[in-house]
Every structure is written in structure tokens, then in C-alpha cells.
Amino acid sequence: MLTPGELAAKLNKLVFSILLIGHQKCAPDWYQPLRTIRHPSFWLIIKGKGSFEIDGIHYPAEPGKIFFFTPGTVVERRTDPESPLEYYLLRFHYTETYEEKEQWISRSAAESPFPLAGMYTVQNPPQLMYMMEQLVVLWKRRGHMTAMRRNILLHEFLLALVQDFRAQKIAGDATAAIEATQDYMTTNYREPLTLEGLSGMAGLSVSHYSRLFKKIIGYTPIDYLTHLRVDRAKELLVLSDYRLKSIASSVGYSDEFYFSRMFKKIVGLSPREYAKKYRVVPIRPGE
């Protein structure tokens, strides 16, 4: 798929002619057998469930999904009888026309494939649903100004869709960055890690990184690091006969007393109490 910026650049060069706008509620037995698409179109699913087969690949049709169908695509569509589909559709023609270096360039749809095809997930369906509702109303009216408004609203719809994709990409990139620092902490918990260093790795400000980490992982970064260290210390206390200072050092704490305080805060027992209760090897004298 094109990046949101590339997609916007492609769409910005297209001139549209709307052929049909509709709002459909399917009967429980609704089914469309295999057919070859003749005109570009898109369907925004707003209710119910179904299954679409596009060029031999099955896709779930459900709220939050938008399907773009391009000429030549072979499609089969059906609804779930217990939860019939409801959707908006828009069929259109287009041509690519734009100015470059003081020259107008025009390409037919056959020469310029539409930049969207197949199924996409929408993060903010209500916004797009509202625009489609407006388009349906405008489709029932006639007049040059109404036709102009329809075309403007179609461009606004496509812009909102690109912005939706952009928001998803930003969120996805941020999530990947957060998960990368999570993996780094899991491997390097013994090191003197800092919030500033971790947020720098993610390419985010400290405050933004902390908020996102808590939202995605469920802990603040420092709490997550502390739990990693305490979990490893619990293993060592149970399975080894190392002294407390060595265990503290091996999980990233230079101060064994601070380590003991953090351990008790999380576990509810001091390291010594935990070891007495769960250790499977003898405790060294004087420990």
C-alpha cells in the first residue's frame, strides 16, 4: 500500500464523475454470485457481518471495513443471515489530469490504475459514515451547485480516509517503537537504563513516551523495568544460593538496601522472607 502522502498525491491528480451513491440494508439471504467489476466503486460497511471474496481471497465484511473494487476484479459477496449487512456504496468514473511544469497531463483510468483496491480498516468510521449520509442526500437532488457540492464532498471523504490511514500509521509506528524498547528492557534490564535513554530510543519525548508505554503495555516504563528486575531476582532467590548483594547487582541494582525496598514493595515480602518461603536450595549461613 502507498504511504498516506503518496496516496494523497495520487488522489489529488484525479477528476471524478459520480455514477451512483446508495445506502443498502441486506435481506438475511442476500448473496451476489461471482461477477466481474465494470466500474470503480467503494463500499463502506456500517452494520452486520458478511464475507467478500475478491480475486479468490476471502475478506470479512464488518463495520469499520471499506472495500474498493476496481474494473476487472472478480467479486463474490454474501451476508451473515443472523446479522445482515448494511453499507454505503459509491460508484464512479475518473481520469488523471494535472499540471506539471506548465503542461497539462491527462491519462485515462486504463492508463492510471486507481490507487486503492481491496479491503481497508478504518479507525474513525463515524466521520466517514456522516459524509456518506450527506452524499446520499445530495444524490437525491439535482442542479449544478448540488453536483459541485457532491464532488467536493467526495474529495473531503477521500481526504478524511487518507488522514485516517495516516493516524493509523503514526499509531502503528509509535506502537512498534514502544515494543522495541520493551524488548530492549527485557534483554538489558541489568544495565543502568533511564527514562530519557529509553524515550530517545523510541524517538519520542519523555512525556509522550511514558504515556504511550503505559497505554500500550499497562505499566509505566520504570515500573515495567522494576518488575522485570524483581521477577529475575525471585528466580535467583529460589534457585540459587547467591548472597543478596550479588543478586541485587545481577538484576541492575548497585544498592542492595534499595533493591530490598523495591522488592518488598512489589512482592509484599522482603528478599530474605521470600527466599525462606520458596527457596529450593540451602540458605548460606550469614545471609
Task: Please tell me about this protein's structure.
The chain is an alpha+beta fold. Helix 1 packs antiparallel against helix 3 and helix 6 packs across helix 9. The N and C termini lie far apart (61 Å). The mean pLDDT is 93. Helices cover 47% and strands 24% of the residues. The longest helix is centred in the middle third of the chain and has 45 residues. The chain has 9 helices and 10 strands. It is elongated. This is AraC family transcriptional regulator. Keywords: DNA-binding, Transcription, Transcription regulation.
Keywords:
Arc Repressor Mutant, subunit A; 287 residues; 2 domains; 4-stranded antiparallel β-sheet; 6-stranded antiparallel β-sheet; Jelly Rolls; alpha+beta
Mean pLDDT: 93
Number-wise, the strands total 10
| CATH architecture level-2 label of the largest domain | Sandwich
Give the oligomeric state of the chains in this entry, treating copies of one chain as homo and distinct chains as hetero.
single chain
